[in-house]
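Quick one, T. Sequence first:
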Amino acid sequence: MGSNILVSVFILPLLSAVSLLFFWGRVRTQKVIGGVFISLYLVASVIQFVFVKSSGSITLDVGSWPAGIGIGFIVDLLSAFFVLLTSVVAFLSYFYVTSSSNSSSKISVFLPVFFFLIFGLNGAFIAADLFNLYVWFEVMIVSSFVLFTLGGKRAQLEGSLKYVAINVFSSSIFLAGIGILYGITGSLNMQMIGSNLPLVENRMLVSIAVTFFVVSFGIKAAIFPLFFWLPSTYHTAPVGYTALVVALLTKVGIYALLRFFTVIFPLQGTLFQPILLVLSGFTMVVGVLGAAAQTDFRKILSFHIVSQIGYMLMGIAIYTPLAIAGAVFFVVHNVLVKTNLFLVSGLVNKLFGSYKLKELGGVYRKFPFIALLFAISAFSLTGIPPLSGFWGKYILAVAGFSANQWLPVTVTAISLGVSLLTLFSMTKIWNEVFWKPNPQVVEPNFPRQSFIIEVVKQYPGMFFSIVTLTVLILILGIFPNSIIEVCMEISNSFFHK
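Structure tokens:
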């Protein structure tokens, strides 16, 4: 039963991508097929999560090879949770982009690549060994590159080249680390490496391998000082095409760091723990200062992705059950909120024709409901109670101050200060985009009758996705206990094996 569920969830995106290739150019048919598959994927992910939560982990060794020799997959509660989160965001992103894009040729390319990206994300979350994780990272890199360049504008190509160059370097470092660990432990399976690594006498070689993984995963997660590719890339492509990338690409890096420092190389008491704490503080501060300096809607949000990654890294580095649970909860919160803010920016661009703050204005006067949707996500990002960001930051703050050591306490205090700067940049967007009068002489591109019902008629998928995400954000903030319990269960599984 469990294996069938795992295979179903895993294979659905691949079947969808291949099926869509057979209908190349027939956009209407592609949209219908894609809609059916993305709905099935969401349902299958929910079933998988419920099964794992009630019955325990699912393992699958392809070809019936012994564990650690063949290709292995494992879906524990963390994997199932991240796959479920992926399915929710993918479902909403799908209907957003199919509603917002008017280019048949771009949609025809986007749809199969979109499902290949989901396929790569699935593989990364359930990979049981490091080399398979490397393979799925490459699938994600190729798919993301296509999505970033879809449209072929100069800024897209420049940003994508930086993205590919740094990720080629990351992959090389990743492979080197895999080679070292395989040489000293004789295995690629994460569990087996974790069991064999304490027996290795050459601790210097172990430290070198761990450093390679920190650099590689740090690039993918966009932590300081390895983040520069993100703000150079995320703002270049149309929002709908890259919504799934924006939501989850860096979170895969966080997922990999969490897996590595719990299953393979426990972080507690090692030299890498204070290093990651310091890096988390710099990531938060540099990201939020970069956001405060920007004058483009999407660039501000891109830098905030970097800043928010610092909170997740802080939770991993504090390395207590509460801190790990806080990091996982913060991932869920950030994926929903940050995706929604990007989707709102895309809708504003559709209506007003720009992402530049100086060219925008008057959104609140014309579309107060859209302004409300933005405000809910913006307040949640800054941590205003009782929204989801407050609970994520509260859990991490309690974990940090409870550590009773100067470094975690200092970094936790920094995280609270960063929240104030986050509020400043969100206020900047509000004032420039929503509150001030529109500076354009020509009336912006929205329906003549400025009622929200007209926007719903013109962009139903965009509106549906944004409203749904906003509702999920409100539910997560007002009723956080169920998700917090899942996050604690995930965290405890690492500390009570």
